[in-house]
Amino acid sequence: MNALPSRPARGGRRSYGRYVADGQLGQVLSQCAGDGWSGALRVAGEPGGLVHFAAGGIVDIETPGAPGPDVVLLRSGQIPEAGWEAAFTSAAPSGQLFPELVRRRLIGAARLEAVLRTALADAMFVLAIGRVEECHREEPTARPLLWLEPGAEPEWLLAETSRRLKVLASLGSQIVHDRDRVTAGRWPLAPRLPLSEGQYDILALANGRRTARDMAFALGRGVYALTLELSQMHEFGLLTVGSRRNETPAGNAWPDGSLVQLRDAQTPARPASAGSNPASPLPQRRAARQSAEPQSPGAVAPQAASALLRILRGGLADPPGPGNADEIADPGGV
Amino acid sequence: MAEDALLAEMRALRDRVVGITDTALASRDGLIVRADTGTIDPDNLAALAAAMLGVAQRIAAEVGQGSLHDAVVKSSGGYVATYAVGGRALLVVVGDTGVNRGLLYRESRSAVDHLESLLAEASSKTGRVATGKDETGEIRHD
User: Fold this and answer.
1) Which of the residues A50, A212, A289, A334 could staple to A226 if both were Cys, CB 3.0 to 4.6 A apart?
2) Rounded to the nearest 10 degrees, how much is the dihedral formed by the CA atoms of A303, A304, A306, A311?
3) Within 13 Å of residue A148, how many CA atoms lie on the same side as its CB?
């Protein structure tokens, strides 16, 4: 187990100029690479994640902070969902999804490798500039869905993160990728600015509820690329920052729900309790009958059943189709 | 006007767990109480979640696996998790594919406990089950 000293908590609105690729994380990654180690490095923090190593190379990173290659491929529309499902089912026994996607001509091998490399760089970017508290080496349990082979060197990924941070820090208007929820502005310059299809996609999602990270998952695009675009659109008045997501509590839960051992654990931010700030009077039900007794487990209330039937008969709105395929960002480009 | 404590708790949950996109608090018979939703229709969501929770609890009882923790729908685009809030309400949490499920479960349970307390306090004051309908009968949500 490699435990890192905890990073001092940071408060307030941060800009990218204050962050650099975490040297401590880099040390751990370099150790894993130098050992030629194969396994999963669990990074606790925010967003935290799981770094998969094979013979010292990084082959995949899972993190809540950035979409993985599967999300990128599907949400961007580069691979239709039906084709993906068929390939996934066919490759399930062997676990070899990459060759199956290529065999079915759903995507070319070179393009798929570029997507994997871009997603890897994006994941390392959000991991490295996030809050890193502890790292643990784990034995591999489940093979990633898609992995880069051969794995990428940590030094390259961290160097790319540093380059991206410099680019973002140089911008006149900085959108923090996981905090700033953006809203479409009033477009004072819009008549003079031709917008790309990608920018229209962004404006369609800019309802004050989504950060760059959220839009990345919705559109199947990279967090860094979107942050860059949002910052530029913000500078031109096409977007405004509607609200900011509050800092989250220290630590991270493993997928099974257990807590990571933390140092300096903070109390999760909560609104005022009912005792100190009594709940405002709640509106009262006027029309429908109400159940005087709590529902017994398993009972489906008549009102819920009738509402359900109404919905099923009327049909729900079709889910939105996949967006247009995004260009694969050059890992070395902006 | 002081922010509604129920809605504040739901918004705080969305802040605490990256990847949560929408939440809704509904009565067990499928009527919306509070909604922190974007484009999702809260009425449809409340009705469907109430039905799903009821069936999920029935299944858990049928197979003798104890009390239900949550009922989860996993799709290619994300998750929908439904939790019972006491015996009278339920919380629906919608998340994208990047949501940390372990953190989601932990923080949602905490939110459920707090929401249950808030609802119990409101019920004890009024003696009636609360909904999100205001004096004009319009659904109030943000």
Assistant:
1) A212
2) 140
3) 26
Residue among A178, A253, A291 minimizing CB distance to B29: A291
Q: What is the mean pLDDT of chain A?
A: 76
ipTM for the assembly: 0.86
Q: Compute φ and ψ for B61, nearest 5 degrees.
A: -70, -40
Q: Which residues pair with A188 in a beta bridge?
A: none
| Phi, psi (degrees; rounded to nearest 5) at A239 | -135, 150
Contact between A290 and B128 using a beta-carbon 8 Å cutoff: yes
Cα distances from B96 to residues A43, A81, B68, B70, in angstroms, run 21, 16, 23, 17
pLDDT exceeding 90 applies to what percent of chain A?
A: 53
> How much is the pTM?
0.78
Contact B102 A297 (CB under 8 A): no
CB contact under 8 A, A255 and B100: yes
- At how many degrees (to 10) do helices A223-235 and A212-219 cross? 120
Specify the DSSP element, H or E, that contains A240. Answer: strand A239-244
Tell whether A272 is within 8 A of chain B (Cβ). Answer: yes
Compute φ and ψ for A207, nearest 5 degrees. Answer: -110, 15
Note whether A253 contacts B38, CB cutoff 8 Å: no
Residue among B4, B47, B110 minimizing CB distance to A280? B4
